[in-house]
Amino acid sequence: MQGLTEAEADRRLAARGDEPLRTSRSTASIVRANVLTPFNVILLALGIVTLVFGDWRDALFVFIVVTNAGIGIVQELRARKKLDELAAIVAPVATVVRDDRERRVAADEVVEGDLVRLSAGDQVVADGELVKSAGLALDESFLTGESRPVPRREGDDVLSGTFVVEGAGDYLVYAGGGDSYAAHITGTAREFRHPRSPLERAVDRLLYVLTAVMVPLGAMLIVALWKQDVGVRQAVETAVAGMVTLIPEGLVLLISITFAAAALSIARRGALAQQLNAVESLASVDTLCIDKTGTLTEPGLRVVGVEPVPDVAEERLRDALGRFAAASPDANATVSALAGALPAPAEPVHETVPFSSARRWSGVRLGDTRYILGAPELFPLGALADEADLHREQGRRVVAFGTTTASFPDEPIDGPPPLVPLGLVVLAEELRPDASSTIRFLADEGVQVKVLSGDHPATVGSIAADAGVISG
């Protein structure tokens, strides 16, 4: 199937007329959130009254409003700049077929009708229908929270925000840009709300009480002065001066300065506070709910252990696994984990059978030996099969490894040749380097961590235990 022409793609892109998706808040939103606070509104109102009826020099307290709002605006604009820079670095691109040639284009340049090519590691940048699939499997954790690869075949829909973990394929776009599924989800998530921290809410309540008291007192003072034949200008100046003294200006300004200092302090440690009150809000947390995928774990697997069958030395199993991983042309997560844990020099490969979710095994011939890695059910493991079941009940991923003296079948999907098992490989999702230390820090601070995930409970439980999350 051929893709669009460049001219037709340009026409459709112009007709769509999408505005670039914002990666963060607008300047107007930041200014509005920091200016329209109860404290600022009260002082601004008193300042306007003073400017209308009194001397402008008596309204200099308005500069406290400017300072208070300016601290928050400057900090949040700096945070937005950093976020925009990060978004630009990780902005996805797509391989499209136009004028019978492959081209790499930005995600927002993909239009309806484009033919997009996918390979391992690519991100799906628009919604579409698969027209070709060669063992394609997607990581749809962005949509479902489940990190296991999901096989996709011709005729299936693919949604933006997912990633290719194995195989390849082509799909025809039917929704891109702002019409894509990912754009709708992120648009909902980016609807900005400016939650007030506990300290800010307490100060706001104080200001509401003071306003309820000082407005009638101010009105009474103006009336009393007017009855004493004091001019309107002097009466307003006196009333406003009395009302301003009731407002804890220094307290509010000190809170803003403290927030800014805290934001700078955590910035030196590599954290970014998008809102000034974020640090104080975090200090009030006693229970933290987190996801597993992307929070505790990284994309990838790690080798937890290897278990040889009886009469096979563990060293022999490790050596064979390392040679297999170094020679395997597959770049899937399992092979990458083996190559990282059991490094070995690359050898000439005489024959390979790539892995796919349909066949559930892959093979490599090194010299006269054919090695096979696959699902434990395909291997005659004997008593070791119970060990494999136990590890899977504990939420681990298990693959079996062995050799065969027979040739690889012409149609590998029919199943592997007769196998001689060498052992098992137990894998788990890769923990983030700082996951365990962060969990320990939170526990020391009295914060309970709860893991909320759509994955299998056993898998979540094993990863949580690895990271040090206490169940209960």
Please tell me about this protein's structure.
The model has no long low-confidence stretch (mean pLDDT about 80). The protein contains 15 helices and 15 strands. Helix 2 runs antiparallel to helix 4 and helix 11 packs across helix 12. The chain is elongated and about 115 Å long. The chain folds into 3 domains: about 160 residues, Calcium-transporting ATPase, transmembrane domain; about 100 residues, Calcium-transporting ATPase, cytoplasmic transduction domain A (Distorted Sandwich), CATH 2.70.150.10; about 140 residues, Calcium-transporting ATPase, cytoplasmic domain N (3-Layer(aba) Sandwich), CATH 3.40.1110.10. Strands 1, 2, 3, 4, 5, 6 and 7 form a 7-stranded antiparallel sheet that branches. The protein has a 6-stranded antiparallel sheet with strand order 9-14-13-12-11-10, with helices on both faces. It is of the alpha+beta class and about 475 residues long. The two termini are about 55 Å apart. A hairpin with a 2-residue loop joins strand 11 and strand 12.
Along the chain, the helix and strand elements come as HHHHEEEEHEEEHHHHHEEHHEEEHEEHEH
Shape: elongated
Beta-strand share of residues: 15-25%
**For the report, how would you describe the main beta sheet?**
7 strands, antiparallel
